[in-house]
Structure formats: structure tokens, C-alpha cells
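Listing 4. Sequential folding, example run.
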Amino acid sequence: MKKVNWNNVRLVVILLVVVFLFSFSAKRNETRWLQEATISFEETEYFITRDNVNKLLIQNYDKVTDIRKDKLALNKLENSLDQNPMIEKAEVYATVDGKLKAVIRQKKPVARVYSESESYYIDRNGTHMPLSDSYTARVPLVTGKVDEITKEKLQQILLYIYNNDFLKKNIIGIDVHQNGDLTMMSRNYDYKIAFGQPITIEKKFKNYMAFLQDASKNNIAEEYKTINLKFTQQVVCTKK
């Protein structure tokens, strides 16, 4: 007769008890009611308020404590937040102690478009973003005949400015003319920057930055009323 290995039996029993306790604990945890919702933003500027995010989180409930953990549809919540025109990406999860947490990455505007019919932001991905009631972004203002420039070219110019610390601080406006030419405005000087057509963008901006660095050293930037960048081999300036 084969002897029973009691050590193995005890090990199996212990494993079964652990699995049972884990399952019981997990099931009990799932059926708990949520205690609170906490919302954090990756940015310090808030285009959407915590209150608005909280309303999207609790959806059809009056308050977060009316929600049971096992009734949460986290993917649905994330998709709902991602559909908000102010939000680029949201991550939602529930903790074991009954907290519903949301981490929000907002859209980052690179310009504000102002036309006769509407006003809106353009974000770094090239999509439209409505103006916010709680925060105004300091980005270049695009005016004029905006339809005369393609979205791709406009986005290329805006991203170049946004990703360059020098230009980001200097360029505050872009006016689009009927023929598609661009005129830009400087934050620190009252001259106009005649950019011309949205071509050879990098070369024109490099010419402008080189000019302004030299002009600032010699304190002559204020003497000009027009900085013409249309000719890629040189910068042509018109004095006041």
C-alpha cells in the first residue's frame, strides 16, 4: 500500500486556502462602493476644470459614492474623456482602497485662429480646439484669409515656432493675405515680418533669427518697420 505524502497534501490544502482567500478578497473588493474621485493634470494650465472632468467620470450618477467598483467600465470612461475637445489623452483606474483616479493630458495649443465667423485654437496635432473659459493660452494669433494657406503648411509653420524657444517668445501673430503671403508680428518690436509664401520655412526662420541676434547686439532692431524674408539668400530691411 502506497503511503500518503502528507507534506504534499498540506501544500495543496494551503494553496487552495490561499486561492480561496484571494478570490474572496478580490470579489469583496470588486463589490465595494467607491469613496472618492481624484483628478490630476500633467500640465499646470487648465483648459478644462476638475469639476468638468469629475462630471464626465461619474456620468449618470449624482456622486462618485453611488458607483460600485464592479460596475465601472474604465475603457468607456477613458473613451468618454478622450472625446472631450480639451483632452488629448486620459488614463482612468480604480485603487484597492476605493478611489477613482484620472490622469489628464490636455491638448497643447500652438496658435489661436481668429476669423470673421469663429475663433479657436489649433493644437500641436493640427486639430481644432475650442477656446477655454478658464485659461487663455499665450500663442500666436492667426488672422486674415486663413483659408488661403493649407492646413499642412500652417501646421508646419506653427510647430516650427512652437518647438523653437527663440521664436516662441518672439512671434505673436501671423496674418494671411489674399494671395497666401504671410506677415508676422514680433512681441518686442513694432516692425512687420514679411514672410511671403509658406515655403523654405526653415531657411527663412533661420535668416530671421540670425538677423535679430545681430540687430539686438547693435541696438538697431527698433529702427526698422519691415523685415523682408522672401529672399532666402538675404534679409532685406526697410527703415522707418
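-- end of first protein; second protein begins --
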Amino acid sequence: MISYIKKNQRSVKLALLATVLGLVPITLSAQSFKLSNGEGKLMVTGTSSLHDWEEVAEQKSGTLQVDVTGELPKITTLKFTVEAESLKSGKGAMDKNTYKALNTDSHKQIVFQLSSIKEISPVTSSSNKYKVVANGNLTIAGKTNKIELPFDLTVNGDKAILEGKKGLKMTDYGVEPPKALMGTIKTGDEIEIHYNTIWKK
């Protein structure tokens, strides 16, 4: 009876050990990256009745977690944040109008938070590049909308690259397109976000 109990105890311990060891590769396979603020570029472009315009985000941050052990990578975490008043056009008056439209006194950040991955497929010309469509929540000027965010993801060792573009309407976020010179210059409602971002371990 005693030998039977000891044998069962050994079996339980071995089963637990196998379970723990089996989980180790899963834990180690999840790679975490941080958005590199000093590299890459995130830019907003748009139109006006006078000329096209662009603003570059000078302060951005984020986290990305990818499991690359399977046939296709699994993106478990994706969040990036832009400090609203770090959007710079090179024209002080335009920047001031932008911050007023975004109500940056109350809403300091623009944030995207992943909720799920809709699609992911390999780019045939590259072994470590994938086309992705992510579902998530985008918050601008305090209003949050669900969006689909398309991008190409490249994972190469200790670095990941996320690049693409997304069209939006300012009015969808309660933002009135800025005006200048007593309303004689009007900004178009449609904008486009261009992102070519570098993420590092």
C-alpha cells in the first residue's frame, strides 16, 4: 500500500514537472517590444483650402507583444500613445489651432489599444513580414471609436517594424476641422495617419 502511494506521488510530481516544463517554451516565446521614440515616424496629413499640410508626432510610446512560435505570429498586446501637443507642423499658428481643436488642455494623449486581430497573413516575398488588420479602440480628444488598423509587421531578432496608414475623419471624434484667418482658410475633415515605427526589446 505504501509503495503504491509513493509511486502515485512520483507520478503526480512527474506530471506537474512535465506541465511546468511544457509551459516554459510558451512563456519564453512571447517577445515584448517597446516603441522607440527616436526612430521611425508617425505623421498626420490632411488638406485645406490653401494647401496640404502635415504634422509629425515628436513624442510617442507603446508596447507590443508577439508570440512567434507558430506558423503565424500571435499579437497579444499592441498599444501606442502620442502626446497630442507633440504634433508639430513647423508652423506655430497651425499647431496652436490644432491643439485648440483637440482640446489638449483636457485631453493630453491620443491612444490606440488593440482588442483583437482580424486578419494576419505572410508576405510571400519575406519570411518574417506579415500583413495584419487589427481591431482596436482609438481615442482622440477624449472620444473613443472602434477602428480597424491595417499594417505590415516585420519581426527580426530584437527589433520589430510596424508600418502602414489609416484614413480618419476628424468629426468622427468630435473635432471641428481647424480654421484660420477669420475662417477664410478651412481644413478638410479627412486626415490620414502614416506610421513607420520601430519597436525594440
